[in-house]
Design brief:
single chain, alpha/beta, five-stranded mixed beta sheet, 5 strands
Length: about 475
């Protein structure tokens, strides 16, 4: 209850809480605060251990209300039931004065403690220079957070309508701060039949989609908001041109919002969607580029979107990790690529690694009859002729046969679970399945770590400001990992 619902350890010393439990069960004695924080927490902490053959990790940083910096490391793997599992490995305190080399040592320490050396397929993070450098020093494949790159692209485009954005943000702040204005807006909505009344959304500097949500909510409340602004004598108002910009910006950014939501899942495979979503973005930008716009700000915004998307996402399909993952996804295969050349290179990349796949044969032993001997067998000539071929089966040739057969299978529906398909077909394509476990565990974004820090903000509060770093790390660990 304490780790999942963010209660302080001191709740066990609360007299009224103690009375409540006595009413429910007079024979139950509450553990002391010390017992909770030292013994029971550690027992649970040490109980949760689960590893996969191949794992990926995500990592990100966060600063608490106590101005302490933390780094989180999560692991992801495909379990024996073909399900994507995620666990928090560690959330450790990190000084910003630490070098990338220090951070590398900390990351390697965590991986070693969990016995995951030589199992890390890739590490996903944002573009923070210290983390990026540390990952390179660890000699891990680095996957840059797709959602973070998308955020940077859209943030740069939104700068072209900064004046309108600031005006809308100021209006929202006015209604957030003034109870009179907020009451007036609610009253007008009720008169107009809005049920339930909607609340304005304030944008957040670091999240572009919050700007989209702010704009969309303002559009939803256009009539009551305009009326409330006039009746409260607010000194700013939105012109017809402002409304045109807000409307068009929402139309332009809607696909980006959908893609951000799609790629941010941590319970489904995301790495194989990156090439497909990049292709969709590029095609979408080519479409809006050719459209005529009378508004100069919107034209400039489109220009930035087109150049940003092209620079950040066009070459992603040439990345072997992304290309191989796309091919191995039965929903996409070769249809997920913008260029056929990228698919061919991805297929070559998979085939080049075929020799590393070791498949144990399950063939049964042949029973030899008593009167049969190798010396006088009628099969001697045939066996001597083909024996060398059978003995030295080429793993690359076997892999090519397997991948070609797989590619000729019908495509799986986009809404189906690719892991379920592979669970049913893992013995049909055993060599490919080895790579599926290695690739599908890789996360397309560092969202899992960001969600951990959302919980961390509720764990370290003013009521819990005395939490030591070690206790905080264990509580975050349990909060994330306990079902």
């Amino acid at each position: 209850m304490i780790v999942k619902e963010y209660y302080p350890f001191s709740i066990v010393e609360d007299k009224e809480f103690g009375k409540l439990l006595k009413m429910l069960n007079p024979g139950y004695d509450l553990p002391s605060r010390k017992t909770l924080s030292t013994s029971l927490l550690s027992v649970l902490y040490n109980d949760i251990v689960e590893n996969g053959n191949f794992v990926s990790i995500t990592t990100d940083g966060w600063t608490s209300v106590k101005n302490e910096s933390y780094i989180a490391v999560t692991t992801h793997f495909i379990d024996n039931d073909c399900k994507l599992k995620s666990y928090l490995l560690s959330c450790f305190m990190y000084s910003e004065s630490h070098t990338s080399d220090n951070l590398k040592n900390e990351l390697l320490r965590v991986i070693k403690e969990w016995g995951l050396e030589h199992r890390v397929s890739a590490c996903t993070s944002d573009n923070a220079p210290n983390i990026t450098k540390a990952i390179d020093l660890c000699k891990w494949r680095h996957v840059r957070c797709f959602a973070h790159s998308l955020n940077l692209a859209v943030q740069n485009a939104i700068k072209e309508i900064q004046e309108v954005k600031e005006k809308v943000s100021g209006i929202v702040r006015h209604f957030k701060k003034s109870s009179t204005a907020a009451g007036k807006l609610k009253s007008i909505q009720e008169q107009l039949g809005y049920s339930p009344p909607l609340v304005l959304i304030q944008d957040v500097v670091t999240r572009w989609n919050s700007t989209f949500e702010m704009f969309q909510r303002v559009l939803d409340l256009k009539i009551p908001l305009s009326t409330a602004l006039a009746e409260t004598n607010y000194n700013e108002y939105l012109t017809n041109n402002d409304w045109i910009i807000i409307t068009r910006a929402c139309e332009l950014l809607k696909p980006f919002k959908e893609i951000t939501t799609e790629i941010s899942s941590e319970k489904s495979v995301t790495i194989s969607k990156i090439v497909v979503l990049s292709k969709s973005l590029i095609k979408y930008c080519n479409k809006i580029k050719s459209e005529h716009n009378t508004c100069m700000q919107i034209s400039k915004m489109i220009g930035v979107l087109v150049s940003e998307v092209d620079a950040r996402f066009r070459s992603l399909e040439l990345n072997p990790l992304y290309a191989e993952s796309t091919i191995l996804d039965p929903r996409f295969k070769n249809y997920g690529f913008l260029h056929q050349y990228a698919f061919s290179e991805g297929k070559k990349s998979l085939i080049s690694k075929a020799a590393t796949v070791n498949i144990v044969s399950n063939t049964q032993e042949v029973t030899v009859l008593p009167n049969q001997t190798d010396d006088d067998s009628i099969w001697n000539d045939f066996d001597s002729e083909v024996g060398s071929i059978v003995q030295s089966s080429n793993p690359t040739a076997a892999f090519i046969v397997e991948i070609d057969k797989y590619l000729h299978e019908p495509l799986l529906s986009r809404r189906e679970d690719p892991l379920l398909w592979w669970k049913l077909n893992q013995y049909v394509y055993p060599r490919l399945f080895k790579f599926v476990k290695k690739r599908f565990c890789i996360m397309g974004t560092s969202v899992p770590c960001e969600r951990i820090f959302s919980k961390a903000g509720q764990t370290i509060t003013k009521k819990r400001s005395r939490l030591t770093c070690s206790k905080f790390e264990q509580m975050i660990f349990l909060n994330f990992n306990l079902e």
